[in-house]
Amino acid sequence: MNAVHDAITDVAGIRVGHFTHPQRPTGCTVVLCEAGATCGVDVRGAAPGTRETDLLRPENLVEQVHAVLLAGGSAYGLDAAGGVMRWLDERGHGFVLGAARVPIVPAAVLFDLWIGDARIRPDAQAGYDACQAASTQPPAQGNVGAGAGASVGKLWGMARAMKGGIGTASVAADGFTVGALVAVNAIGDVVDPATGEPVAGARTADGRHLLRSADALRRGDWPAPPQPGLATTIGAVATDAVLTKAQAQRLATMAHDGLARCIQPCHTTTDGDTLFALATGAAGRSAPVALLGALAADAVAQAVLNAVRHAVGLPGLPAERDLGGPL
Questions:
Q1: What pLDDT is attached to residue 74?
Q2: Half-sphere exposure at residue 199, Cβ-oriented, CA atoms within 13 angstroms
Q3: Would you tell me which of 3, 46, 72, 236 could form a disulfide with 112, CB atoms 3.0–4.6 Å apart?
Q4: Beta strands in 151-256, from DSSP E residues, in sequence order
Q5: Global confidence as pTM
Q6: pLDDT digits over 70-117, tens only?
Q7: Residue 2: pLDDT above 70?
């Protein structure tokens, strides 16, 4: 069953804030867990842009993080993590090292430099502003934060692509809640697993309908080799269960099943698909990772669908609501 608001903020100890740039479709989104949360990560794409992911390996020192950042702007967007660190430091949150505190902020970025002036991208102030906007309310979806410049269906190039976005969802079972927040910038189509029908993706040559990329590929309609950096789907799942770092890493791995259900193709050589997993421990007890992982995959799949269904088209980049559906 879905939790109260069907959002990652249904998980106790989690707040979310967006910054959307006023001059170009780009931005960043912060998932705050100021009290600390155990964190794992699974990077599946072959061209990732990430920060602090090595630190999350189970054998490494730091046990908890204080925020996760998702950002547009490609590698430039990693600058926004500095603003998140500054916001946390001003409030006394961080890993204690003698007289110093160091906020731990893992991050992942997606490539959205195709749209508008590529010199405009999230910076440290954007990360700080996203923290300022954070709340426990259900976060906005679609063309906001890290999803502002996201696009999908790029196997045949940007001229036949569609608007992506950011989405959230949550699921509750056995007294535990698992939520997901996903910025969908996929090279492939987004498909509703309940029906097998494409929701958004590559368009036909006339731009009026969905091509059904998987069917086109099976017919031998092969596109030109895609350019690197075309696609990356990034996100975070969170739970109120108590987990170890190794269990959090496994949760992130299982959460990727949600991407594979909805995105065709997924985890390609030109993307940087990355999911973080946060465990706040607010439930006060542990749960089987198999249960949490199944819930996480469901939440991720629904968050992907919500991202494209809330998206609003941009010039030359229509959203789901703008098309007549598949042929």
A1: 95
A2: 28
A3: 72
A4: 151-152, 162-163, 165-173, 176-184, 189-192, 197-200, 234-239
A5: 0.95
A6: 999 999 999 999 999 999 999 999 998 888 899 999 999 999 998 899
A7: no
The CATH architecture one would assign to domain 8-322 is: 4-Layer Sandwich (3.60)
Check whether 46 has a pLDDT greater than 90.
no
Tokens of 263: 């995105």
Whole-number Å distance between alpha carbons of 252 and 145: 22
Q: Where in the chain are the domains?
A: 8-322
- Which 3 state secondary structure label does DSSP give 42? strand
In degrees and rounded to multiples of 5, residue 153 shows phi and psi of: 70, 50
- For residue 114, give both structure tokens: 């195709």
Position 326 scores a pLDDT of 57
CA distance 194 to 296: 17
Residue of 284, 229, 217 lying closest to 12 (CA atoms)? 284
